[in-house]
Amino acid sequence: MNDSPGPVVPPITGTAETPQHVTIFDTSLRDGEQSPGCSMSASQKLRFAHALSELGVDVIEAGFPASSEADLEGVRSIVREVRGSSLATLARCHPGDIEACARALEGAAKPRIHVFISTSPLHRQHKLNLDKQQVLERAVAAVEQARKYVDDVEFSCEDALRTEHDYLVEICGAAIAAGARTLNIPDTVGYTTPSEIRALFEYLRDNVRDAHKAVFSAHCHNDLGLAVANSLAAIEGGARQVECTINGIGERAGNCALEELVMALRVRNAYYNATTRIDTRRLVPTSRLLSRITGMVVQRNKAVVGQNAFAHESGIHQHGMLKHRGTYEIMAPEDVGWAQSQMVMGRHSGRAALSDRLQTLGFSLDEARLNSVFAAFKTLAEKKREVFDADLEALVLGADAKAARGYRLVRAHVSTGVSDGSLPTASVQLVDPDGATVSEAAVGDGPVHAMFAALARATGVDLNIDNYHVSSVTTGDDAQGQASVTARVDGVELTGSGTSTDILEASALAWLELANRVVRTQRQPQPVAAPRKVAANA
Ligand code: KIV
Ligand code: ZN
């Protein structure tokens, strides 16, 4: 056992010259993963742990090894490969749980054992059937046992926000004396309010014996939608670690969302005087990776990482954005990993935004022509919720639009290779912009990949696809599928979409729509435009 005194926590208030570091403890792989709809295989956990480490997370809670053999194995594989962040594992105050943590963490560069026990009267009586003294003794024994294996031990008082304050002071003091370096004060049921939790952290910092030897940590659940606000208030009260998850996943309504907390600290830096090690440009890619792994979709209007977080549709907002993006954005989309702001073209959009979007699509219209296209656009926007690039092209190109769009799909044949173990293969036949027939075939990792490869060969357009998405637009087993394909071309994000009852055909149509746009944009003389402040994107 190591007797080092543990960290001495700096004063509560940072200053502009000496901002305080807040440790980011990510529990997506533990609290997040144990919630409905978020389970991950061992290899998915490993992949995500690498992403968290690249994001700059200080501590990754990798799992709860005593919960299953699979969880233990999952933690072990993370321990073998992930070196940049501390790796924590969770244990109840049971000797067997702590041993499982120690086994799982063997060989870790920076191991941490996190032990917890319920402290609130409700939990003591109904869940544990233990009195205060018995809970305290178990906590002390667990911290001491964990310290035999590692120096870095965290102790959590489950349901702390509904625990008697004098008892919290007592048990936290005992945990520090037993060797805990981090004291976590969870709002397990998302019950507290910002001013209440701030006052509690101040009280604990002032009253717990040897409080300066430990880092106080907040772990807020989101049952009332207050997890981020409560975590920020805890920081104001002296917390120097926040436990959070990507996209806010976690038990019930989830945990404090890492991306929101980190960006609040960054955008309101002068207010909080606190910093983190997070590479904020990795927030959106990490959020998307988690969505892809779990299949849990991020709500469109979610702060920072939601699709609408930097999207503008109203004419007044679009006009302001085109003049100066500070008018309606408090952070740059690029700083959190988005390619750019989006101008969604709909019935609220104005002429300035339409003109900007048309220029991006390669059309430079004179005043009179722009006026007539704008009038047609407004009529269309009254009928459609969102006006896509293809609709705008059709408005500008009129009746000749179809022909002017370039390559057209005649037929496609795709085989998955599932039945006979052969490679997924696709062959396509197209008509090119000059009316000639082109046929090509290709293999790929999957049927869609093979078809896109065949289309790339047939058209000579090489698309670097950022996003491919299929959703159903009608219901029933004959539902229409809508596919969309997004790629960045010369720094601008372009999207193609296609609809069919056959999702492979919808995908091919989406790919071709995008490829035709690229071909046509590159043929058009580029308009001379003022330096772009935002790029429009439908
Ligand atoms: O919410 C909670 O109390 C927890 C603890 C195990 C830290 O997740
Ligand atoms: Zn929790």
UniProtKB/TrEMBL annotation:
EC number: 2.3.3.13
Residue span of region Regulatory domain: 408-538
Pfam families: HCS_D2 (PF22617), HMGL-like (PF00682), LeuA_dimer (PF08502)
Origin superkingdom: Bacteria
GO biological process entries: L-leucine biosynthetic process
Pathway assigned to this chain's UniProt record: Amino-acid biosynthesis; L-leucine biosynthesis; L-leucine from 3-methyl-2-oxobutanoate: step 1/4
Record field: catalytic activity: 3-methyl-2-oxobutanoate + acetyl-CoA + H2O = (2S)-2-isopropylmalate + CoA + H(+)
Enzyme class name: transferase
Keywords: Acyltransferase, Amino-acid biosynthesis, Branched-chain amino acid biosynthesis, Cytoplasm, Leucine biosynthesis, Manganese, Metal-binding, Transferase
Cofactor(s) demanded: Mn(2+)
Residues involved in Mn(2+) binding: 31, 219, 221, 255
Any GO molecular function: manganese ion binding
Gene Ontology CC annotations of this record: cytosol
Family: Belongs to the alpha-IPM synthase/homocitrate synthase family. LeuA type 1 subfamily.
Purpose: Catalyzes the condensation of the acetyl group of acetyl-CoA with 3-methyl-2-oxobutanoate (2-ketoisovalerate) to form 3-carboxy-3-hydroxy-4-methylpentanoate (2-isopropylmalate).
Summary of subunit composition and partner proteins: Homodimer.
Name of the molecule in the record: 2-isopropylmalate synthase
Source organism phylogeny: Bacteria, Pseudomonadati, Pseudomonadota, Gammaproteobacteria, Lysobacterales
Gene: leuA
